[in-house]
Amino acid sequence: MITKEQYIQSLVWEIQIIKHLAEKIDPSKLDYRPTPKQRSVLELLQYMGQSIITSISANIAGDDKKYIELSKAKDSITYENFIEKMDAQAKFVQETVGALSDEDLNKEVTLFGNTATLAMQLLGVMRSVAAYKMQLFLYIKACGNDAIGTSN
Hints:
The chain is mainly α. Helix content is 62%, strand content 5%. The chain is built from 6 helices and 2 strands; from the N terminus they run αααααββα. Helix 1 (4-22) packs parallel to helix 6 (118-142) and helix 2 (41-61) runs parallel beside helix 4 (82-98). The chain is globular, with a radius of gyration of 16 Å.
């Protein structure tokens, strides 16, 4: 069983890795997308730059509409402000998740038809962040940056 503090520390670490990867992006490759229906590098950054706040806020509220509304913030995210947006998400995680009580974490939440305790929903956020981190890594490699590897 992990503690709330360990969860926060782990999610903030994932954010730090994502920021490190973002520094490896060649700005001339922001339009790269593996296939026509997949996100471009920029669209992936825009999603990642707001998805943690969006997902955690919607789960705490137990409100699908809140997720949809907050996800519109992606339009304000650029390559140039991505690091700042990730820093804001790290601060949000520390403050918002840090303020949750055990009672809060044990309450059942339903979001998009998935019902689980808030703690389990938050673990889903962590899994999602890790998956999108890997996608970003693969995009950067596919764009020709062969200088990055597992240590990145």
